[in-house]
Amino acid sequence: QDNENLGFTRIRRVAPIAVNTHGGRAKCLQRLIRLDLPVPETIALSFDAVHRLAEGQTFDKHALLRVFGDAPLLSVRPSSEDPDWGGPGAILNIGMNDARHAELTKTHGPEAADALYLRFVQSYAVHVERLDPEVFEFDASMSVSDALKSALSAHEDETGDPFPQDPAFQLGQVLRSMARAWEGTTARLLRQAKGAPADAGLGLIVQAMSLGIGPGESGAGVMQLVDATTGAPLIKGRYKRQAQGREALSAQSNAMYLTQDVRGPSLEEEQPKLFAELVEMSKLCRQRLREEMQVEFTISGGKLSVLDAVRVPRSSRAALRIAVQLAEDGIISHEDAILRVPPRSLTELLHPQVDPNAPRDVIAKGIAASPGGAVGRIVFNSTVAQTYEARGEPCILVRRETTPEDIRGMHSSVGILTERGGVTSHAAVIARGMGVPCVVGASIRINTRERTLTLEDGRKLAEGDILTLDGSAGEALVGEAQMLPPVKDHWYLQLMEWADAIRDLGVRANADTPADAAMARDFKAEGIGLCRTEHMFFEADRLTVMREMIFASAHEDRSEAIARLLPMQRSDFIELFRIMEGLPVCIRLFDPPLHEFLPSDREGAKELAEALDLPLSDVTRRIEWLSEFNPMLGMRGVRLGITFPEIYEMQARAIFEATVEASKHGAPVVPEIMIPLVSARREVEIVKTQIDGVAAAVKNETGAAFTYRLGVMVETPRAALRAHDIAQHADFLSFGTNDLTQMAYGLSRDDAGRFMNAYVQQGVFPEDPFHTLDIEGVGELLRIGTERGRGSRPDLTVAVCGEHGGNPESIAFCRAIGLDYVSCSPFRVPVARLAAAQLVA
Ligand code: PEP
Ligand code: MG
Question: For an engineered disulfide with 586, which of 171, 204, 672, 829 has Cβ 3.0 to 4.6 Å away?
C-alpha cells in the first residue's frame, strides 16, 4: 500500500513554502527560483510529512519520482527552520544502479560513472543502512573502479543482499532514514543546545542532480562576495573539477581558487564566461535576498546550475560590517542593520579577543565575568603583579577571590582569574569596570604559599607560567593563544549613530574614577548613572585613609580621617564634572561593605597597624569587633550615614564645593546625589535634611548658587514596596538590582557562583539572576517600585544601575516598564545603546 499521499510540494515561484512549515533551505530555494537562477527541479517535504515518515508512514514513491522525469539522479538535503540546528548530511546520486551505471559509462565515460555510483553506495551503506564506515573507506591508491567493486561486494557481505537497484526503494529508504535521524536523541540534544524548541521540525529537499562529473567543463564549488572574518568585499570560494557537493571545500582537495591566485589556476582564468556569470548570480542573490550568501553551484558539461545558497557564516566583526554595508548600499534599512547585529557581539569587538578559531588548550572553565582576551604570566598577589608591571611584563592575577587590597594588583594585571565568586562578586564588578578580562569561579585550586595552582586534571602551574584568559568564553588556556585586535572602525561608528538616532531609552555608565569617566564619554554614555564613591579609595595610598575612617573607634579619630578624605573627594568630583561636562553625574554616597574594606589576613592587619601606628593586637581586636556575620546585610550604605552623619556630610560638602568650582569654568553643574541601601522613608528624610544643611552652608560660604537632585537607590525589597513613601523625598529612584536580586532571593552575590552552575543546569533558575534580571520576581519589584514611586510623584526619574543595566534581555524589560535610563559598566554602554535601539527598530 505504497500509494498514500505524503504531501510534497514542487518548489515553484508560486508555491506554499514557508520557513516554519518547510524550513529555511526550502524557502531559500524558492527565492532563488524567483530570481530565475538555474536551479534544478526541486521538491520540498514539509515538517509534517517528514514527521509522519519517521513514524513509519508509507507513501507513493513513484509519484514523487515521476516529477523528475525519466531515470533521474537525485539528492536529498535537510531543511530545518534555523540552519544552525543542524540536520542529517546530504545524500547524493540516489537512483544509481547497475543499469544507470552502464548508461553513464557510455555517455559520461567509465570513470565518471564509477565515481557517481561509488559515492552513492558509500553514503547509502553508511547513513541509510548504518554499516561500518571503515568497511566503505578506500585509500587513494585504489582505482575508482576497484573501489566500486569492493563496495558493492562489501555491501552484499554485510547485509546478505545485493545493493538495492530500485530507485523508488532507494529514495524511500533515504528519506525515512533522514527523518529518523532527526528524531534521534543525540540530534535532539544537539539542537536543543543551540536553542531549538523540543518539537523543532525537519523538512527535506529532493533535488535533481546536476552531476558535476562527466565530459566537458564539469565540477562543483561555492562562491561568496565577502570575507567571512572581516566582512570586506572580496570574491571567495573554491571550485573543483569532476566533483560534487561541497567536495571543493575539503582540506585535502586540490580545488581551484575562483579568482586569479598565485597558488594555482583559477576559474576566472580558465572559464572567464562561467566565472562572470557566477559573479552576476551571486550579486543578484545579495541584492534580492538582502544578505551575503554563499552560493553552491555545479557546472555540468559547461552548464551552470545553482543548487543552494546559505547565509555566509561570519565572525561578529564581519556581521557588523556586512549589515552596515548592506544598509549603505540601500539594500536593507538602517533599522534592519541595527536588528542584524547581536548587541553582545559588540563587547567582543571592543576588546582584544582570543581568536575563536585558533587551537586552544583549555585548562579551566569558570564564569565569563568580564569579556576580552589577555595573555600574561601567572602571579598570585598584587605585589608581584606590580613588579611585573614595572618590568613591562603583562601578568594575570590569580586569586581565590579579590578584595580592595588587590585593586593595585588588578590595575597592574591584564587579566584576572579567581577560584571563587559570581558575576557580581568583587573581582567581576571591578574587572568589568576596568575593562579587564576576568573569569571567576574557575575550576582551579590555588596554593598561595607554594604559589601554584592545580587544575582539575591534576596539572600544576606556577608563578611565571604563561596563561591566556578568555573572559568572553569563561576559559583559561595554557600558553599564549592567538589574539584578534579590537575594532572601532567606520562600520561600528556608523551603526551606533543609526542606533542612537532611534533609541528612546537613556544609557548612562557606571564610572567611579576619571579614567572610567573618560571611557564612558568615549563610549558615548549620556552621563554617569552610578559613581561608587568608596571605589575611589581602592588605590593603595587612599585605602588606608578610608580604613582609618571605618576603623576609628572615637569621634575625634574619625573626624581626622574624614578631614583628610574631603580634599581627595573634592578633587575627584571636580575632575569627574570636568570630564562629563554638560552631562549628568550621579554620585552615590559611601556604601562600603565592611568585609571589603577590612584586611582579610595577618599581612593586611600588619600593614594597617603600621599605617595607624598601633600595636597589631589592638588592630586585630578592632577588626574582630567590626567583623560581621553577614556583611552584605550589615553596616552598609545609608546605615553608615545615619550612624555617623559626619561621613555623608563630608561627601555632600565635597560634591557641592566641586560643583561650585567646576561651574566656574564650564557649564553649570547640577549634581545628582544618591543614597544607597535605603529601606525606610525616614532614612531619606534624615539624610536629606543633612545634605540640605550642607548645601546651604556651602552657598553661604561661597556666595554661589547651585541646585542638586537627590535620589534613592532601591536595593531592598522594602524600598520597592514603599516607593510611594520614599519618592516623596526623592527626585529620582535608581534600582540597584545587584543587591535587590541578592535580597529578593536571599542569595549571596559573592557566594552564588559555587552552586549557580548546578542550579542553571538543572533548570532551577533559567539563568543566573545576577546576570539576567529575574523578570518574574525581581522584575515585579521593579514594576511595583516604578508604579508606586510615580504614583506619588509623576515626574520621578526611574533608572536601573545594577549589572543588569548592560544586559540586553533586562534592558527590554526596563524599557517595557517605562524606566528612563539604564546605567552599566563603560564597556557595556555600546551593547546597551544597540539593545535599546533594537527595541524600537
Ligand atoms: C546594586 O546593588 O545593584 C548596585 C548598583 O550597587 P553595588 O553593586 O555597588 O552594591
Ligand atoms: Mg548595591
Answer: 672
pLDDT at 251: 62
CA of 540 relative to ligand 2 center, distance in Å: 23
Residue 147 belongs to some domain of the structure: yes
Model pLDDT, residue 1: 40
| Residue closest by Cα to atom 6 of ligand 1 | 736
Q: Which ligand is nearest to the CA of 738?
A: 1
Q: What is the CATH number of the domain that holds 254?
A: 3.30.470.20
CATH number at residue 395: 3.50.30.10
Q: Is 432 contained in some domain?
A: yes
What is the whole-number distance in angstroms between the Cα of residue 715 and the centre of ligand 2? 6
* Ligand 1, pocket-test mutation among 530, 716, 823, most atoms within 8 A of CB: 530
Ligand 2: distance of its center to the CA of 678 in Å?
A: 10
189 and 240 together in one domain = no
Residue that has been written with the C-alpha cell 580558465 in this structure: 270
Round the average pLDDT of the chain to a whole number and report it.
92
Last residue of some domain: 314, 343, 363? Answer: 314
Would 97 be classed as within a structural domain?
A: yes
Counting ligands in written order, the one closest to the CA of 596 is 1
Q: Is the pLDDT of residue 757 over 80?
A: no
ipTM of the complex: 0.99
Query: What is the helix (H) or strand (E) element at residue 439, kind and residue range?
Result: strand 438-440
Protein residue closest via CA to atom 8 of ligand 1: 738
- Residue 271 shares a structural domain with residue 358: no
Kindly give the residue spans of alpha helices, DSSP state H, lying in 478-554.
Answer: 490-502, 514-522, 540-551
In a domain, 657, yes or no: yes
Q: What are phi and psi of 372, to 5 degrees?
A: 110, 170
If asked whether residues 682 and 769 sit together in one domain, one would say: yes
As annotated, the active-site residues are: 426, 801
Grid-cell match 514596596, residue found: 721
Which residue from 416, 470, 440 is spatially nearest to 366, judged by alpha carbons? 440
Each residue of 26-67: pLDDT tens digit?
Answer: 999 999 999 999 999 999 999 999 999 999 988 888 889 999
Q: For residues 181 and 242, state if they share a domain.
A: no
Atom of ligand 1 nearest to the CA of 424: 8
Q: What is the mean pLDDT of residues 756-784?
A: 91
Q: What is the CATH number of the domain that holds 668?
A: 3.20.20.60
Co-location of 581 and 692 in the same domain:
yes
Ligand in nearest proximity to the CA of 535? 1
pLDDT in tens, 378-435: 999 988 888 888 777 889 999 998 887 788 788 889 999 999 988 888 898 888 777 7
How far from 16 is each of 13, 83, 559, 721, CA to CA, in Å?
Answer: 9, 20, 80, 53
The DSSP secondary structure of 305-369, one letter per residue, reads: EEEEEEEPP--HHHHHHHHHHHHHTTSS-HHHHHHHS-THHHHHHHS-EE-TTS---EEEE-EEE
Per-residue model confidence as pLDDT tens digits over 284-342: 999 999 999 999 999 999 999 999 999 998 888 899 999 999 999 999 999 999 999 99
Based on the fold, state whether residues 778 and 650 are members of the same structural domain: yes
Enclosing domain of residue 190 = 8-208
Are the C-beta atoms of residues 424 and 756 closer than 8 Å to each other? no
Residue 681 CA to ligand 1 center (angstroms) comes to 20
Domain shared by 202 and 224, yes or no: no
CATH code for the domain in which residue 195 is found: 3.30.1490.20
Of 423, 424, 750, the one to substitute when testing ligand 1's pocket (max ligand atoms within 8 A of C-beta) is 424
Residue 549 or residue 250, greater confidence: 549
Cα 738 to ligand 1 centroid, rounded to whole Å:
5
Same domain, 233 and 269: yes
Atom number of ligand 1 nearest to Cα 738 = 3
Among 291, 314, 337, the domain-final residue is 314
Comparing 382 with 283, which gets the higher pLDDT? 283
Q: What angle do CA 376, 378, 382 make, to 5 degrees?
A: 105
Which of 429, 510, 801 maximizes ligand 1 atoms within 8 Å of its Cβ, making it the mutation to test the pocket?
Answer: 801
Number of structural domains found in the chain: 4
Residues 6+ apart with CB under 8 A from 229: 314, 315, 317, 318
Please indicate, yes or no, whether the overall pTM of this predicted structure exceeds 0.80: yes
- Reply yes or no on whether the pLDDT at 500 is more than 90: yes
Pocket of ligand 1 from Cβ distances under 6 Å: 530, 532, 591, 715, 736-739, 801-802
